[in-house]
Write a structure and sequence with these properties.
Elements lengths: L1 H12 L19 H5 L25 H5 L6 E3 L2 E2 L4 H11 L2 H17 L7 E4 L4 H7 L3 H13 L8 E3 L11 H7 L4 E3 L7 E9 L3 H12 L4 E9 L5
Parallel strand pairs: 1-7, 2-7, 3-6, 6-7
Antiparallel strand pairs: 4-5
Length: 237
């Protein structure tokens, strides 16, 4: 009760400001209503890979998943990697704006809370190699996973998977090179017999990273793997 009262006093003295336009924002998300609704929401997505679909399509799955489904069972990304979200993610990842990371993590958590998704046994953020972690100072997937863990009351297994190879930056590679780049890049630290896992990442592009991680989770005994990302890159397919 005291904590809530202090929060109300703080909000009255320091009203929240929208991080995009500077107008008064909502206390729970630091975005005004206009900017919140103006985000590039992924409203019509393939349930298997979260790729945006044309609104007029009659197919449940995208063409890529019909031809060659990914190794995970389902994916969900509430937003598209487009303006202005791409600028917010870059502020978070490359400028060390952890407050922005908390905002983005809360957006993901709110989306997952409101949706009808299969409830996993634990959350696994995509790990960074130790060298990249020292350079950046934080793992963006882990920071996004923290609000999801709190809101959904799910265990956060942040040390379950480790990245054993310092791979090249994925965004600089083509799809086939991304897959080669991630070969034998991850290791699982304990058995996962029968466990249902949700992998958390910031942006899902080709899916090469989460596919490689799904492979080692399956090899460790995971019964089910789904992918929860903040944003999906790509155009309707």
């Amino acid at each position: 009760m005291v904590h809530g009262w202090l929060n109300n006093i703080h909000a009255w003295i320091y009203p929240p400001i929208c991080v995009l336009c500077g107008a008064p924002g909502a206390a729970d998300r630091k975005l005004c209503s206009g900017c919140f609704h103006g985000l590039p929401w992924n409203r019509h997505a393939c349930p298997r890979c979260a790729a945006p679909l044309p609104t007029e399509t009659r197919s449940l799955l995208c063409g890529s998943c019909l031809r060659a489904p990914p190794p995970w069972e389902a994916a969900a990304c509430p937003l598209l990697y487009d303006w202005p979200l791409d600028q917010l993610i870059q502020r978070f990842k490359f400028n060390g704006d952890l407050a922005m990371g908390r905002l983005l993590g809360e957006l993901l958590a709110q989306f997952l809370t409101a949706g009808e998704f299969s409830r996993p046994d634990l959350l696994v953020p995509v790990p960074l190699h130790a060298a990249r972690l020292r350079e950046r100072g934080f793992n963006q997937a882990l920071e996004l996973a923290r609000p999801v863990s709190r809101r959904l009351r799910l265990p956060l297994a942040h040390s379950l998977c480790v990245r054993v190879r310092d791979t090249a930056v994925q965004s600089q590679l083509q799809a086939a090179a991304r897959r080669r780049n991630l070969r034998d890049a991850f290791r699982v630290t304990r058995p996962l017999h029968g466990v249902h896992v949700a992998v958390i990442d910031d942006v899902l592009t080709t899916g090469a990273t989460v596919a490689a991680l799904t492979g080692v989770l399956r090899a460790a005994g995971a019964a089910r793997v789904q992918v929860w990302g903040l944003a999906r890159a790509g155009h309707p397919v």
